[in-house]
Amino acid sequence: QVQLVGFWGGLGQPGGSLTLSCAASGFIFRWYPMKWYRQAPGKVRELVAEIDSAARSTNYANFVKGRFTISRDNAKNTVYLQMNSLKPEDTAVYYCNVRQSIDYWGKGTLVTVSS
User: Fold this and answer.
1) Phi, psi at residue 111, to the nearest 5°?
2) What does the alpha-carbon distance between residue 76 and residue 24 come to, in Å, rounded to a whole number?
3) What's the DSSP call for residue 88?
């Protein structure tokens, strides 16, 4: 049974940093690319960042490029999202995702950026 559990959302200040993590289980983690999405209130879910299975390649949405970094530790079955230079518009629920025959989603972790 695939499980994705997100940790360490919370309140961040504009210009500050937060790091999200997502612990995976129930599948061979090192075989699959992983993604982070986010969904702000009243908006559609959007792709934030993705990383390939061996952490050799990453891609970012333009709105986080240069500020966010996705990484993974295949020994710990965990994917991370380091978020720097936070903006109020980064406020959203963040979800980790793995696509196999279907999409699996973590429960989501709320990030609020406010002074």
Assistant:
1) -115, 125
2) 9
3) G
